[in-house]
Structures
1.
Amino acid sequence: MSENKKNNDSSSIWHPIQGPLGAGLTLGALVFMGSLLGILTRMENHLASFWLANAIMAGVLLRIPASSTLFGWLVATLGFLSADLITGSYPLKAGLLTLANLVGVAAIRAAYLRLTRGLIGIHQPLAVLHLACACACGAAASGMVGGLINPVLFDDGVLIGYLFWFVTEFANYIGILPVLLTAPALPDLCRRVVRYMTTPAYRANLLPVLLLMVSCVGAQLIGGPGAIAFPVPALLWCAVSYSTFATATLTLLTSAWMLVSYSNSLPFNAEAMISLRLGVFLIVPGPIMLSLLMQSNNSLLATLKHMAARDGLTGVSNRLDFMERARQQLRSGGSPVGVMMIDLDHFKAINDTHGHAAGDAVLVSVASRIQHCLRTGDLLGRLGGEEFAILIDGHSAEELAAIAERIRLTVVQAAVRIPEGVALPVTMSIGVAVAESDGRLSIEQLLAASDAALYRAKNEGRNRVVVTSLLPDWSADAEFGQGAVR
């Protein structure tokens, strides 16, 4: 997919982090901060409503392989323990909770790498299923430890402890990990944000987010068991409007806000909390899968559009694309404007003597050489056979004549090596028409004028440039080049 084809490079999120030391310390710091934030949502004598640390640790271990060392695991363990101890937990409780956390993280990392065969990231809808299965494995591992320690820590049964721990961990993993696994590099993210904010239509693109905010407020005001579904339509709109990373982030923020607000406003009930947490975070996969489908669809459409607009042999614009883009450029481009018609001299003889493979090699080489003589905004197209056309604006007639001559010399001065290994000399004739870009002349008229100049070049011996101008202050025709083909 391009968006993040292989995100297991350690530089894919935090470029400055290099080596086990920096990666391990970063992992420990993030686990510590995530634990502190989670503890703030912890209800008295119960698990936290929203626990960030485990998913953060799993995401960092997957995205930054240098952190997955003994040192990294030790520093992360210290992060878990220190966050619990400084917030008032006694050592035994801190140790048992940390054990459950580490077992779950280890399980989800192993399951994810096995399911995805080491490919890190979310590139297609099937990847969401792989992630969900890995999250279930990590949650089950934590649940087994949590069920065993539940009677010790919370004076409750093993089964209810397992269920509560499993649902809580699964909800946290499935909500947080998509954000970490789709996160672009920080410099790239900053560039995207700046580019997005400077786009004239960015305010209209904020409408899905505004609707999401309104739906969240409405859910809070209306309340009731169905309120958790209020943001779903807005999240689906976000999915078709934004990238997978942005969709995953908005889905996580929405789910976390709803979970924390509902957990703190309702009396504690184990069954109700299990249902709430599972219900809230089962919303997550839907928008992400829709976003992935939209990204895949957009990528496919862009590929098909590119293929439809490109000449299959040379890679330059085909006739239809050239004509359409030329019309657009004539409406908005600078003045004066020049159109060049290029024809390879005696090209039929190349095909007849050396075969069509040699002719194809000549066309590919010539198109590449022409492209290197042009600016980024100049338009080059293959109109058919050995004929090429160029549209250039913002140059005087003298400058266009010089550009055409440079193109001719670039092709003439270096022979083309064909598949047989023979270095084949190639020459070309070029007709150039120059006119004011005032909306009165169409691309068809300019091509006709440049084609007439091309036929003059052919009739006068080939391997030359003939320029004809429709400008009022440069009416004389000009001719450049070396004589006929030898």
2.
Amino acid sequence: MFDLNILFSAAGRRVSLLRHFKKTTSAMGIRGNIYAADSGKSAPAGFIADQYLNVPRASSPDYIPELLSICKKYEIKLLFSLIDTDLELLSKHKEDFEIIGTKVLVCNTETNEICFNKQKTWEFFVNNKIDTPHLYSKDEINQLGEKEFPLLVKPWDGSCSLGVHIVHNHKELEFFSQYVKNAIVQEYLEGDEYTCDAYVDFEGKVRCVVPRKRLETRGGEVSKGLTVNDPEIITAVTDVVSKLPNAVGCITVQCFKQESGRISFIEINPRFGGGHPLSLHAGADFPRWIIQEFCGLKCEASQNSWKHDLAMLRYDDEIITEGVNIQ
């Protein structure tokens, strides 16, 4: 019987993930609590946790000191971040948390910089000879012909598909390049889009990859998805993740597979993605594997752990609480 308190920062709407962690620790005979931290008081996941903690935004100078205080007070052993904006910040302070006995399960700063900045993500793909949509330079943009359209305009520091626009001509390109903050212009791809969950063990080895075909999205997050046992995608994703410096835990990789068979990568998020519950239900139990490794048990992570052709159809649910709890 182990004692293990776990904290999730930026818990947001990750109700399914926190429920699964609670279920897993209970099934494994592990004592401890699940804590959720968020800058708002109305994050749904906070009402699923054993305790909900209000913290400053990641941009605040008080953010890290407050998290450190929480981890010390509640004897947090594992800390996860569930949003892009504080991954790099937490990676820079991993040693501060380790001093008080908290393991921050995030990749190192270099990997987080690569993944957060889409310009650097593109450079990582190109430098490692990984297929990726072309990113146009300013000189190339000025010389674009009509045959190059449609194109994609998006912010280099965006997330959840915010600020992403398909442009079909020079007039639209000019408008959205000005309208979108920190805009970059990229080749537009058609084909089946996949979000793939890769489990990287504490030794840096990719142990499992689950490709999830995106059938429908809402607000930048998958609302309908399907697990697909595609060996070509699994091999390609394993190669991509293996080239990241000191990756660990759940790495979410997005790619397109076209009719020609071309697999082209567009994004990497070194954290649990919003659609990860599909992988969990399919049998890829990332939380259990992480806890097994942390507790010094045999990690059961395996490529054969999950079920092919399992669909997830998401819908709205509600949490009811007194208004005083969210004000």
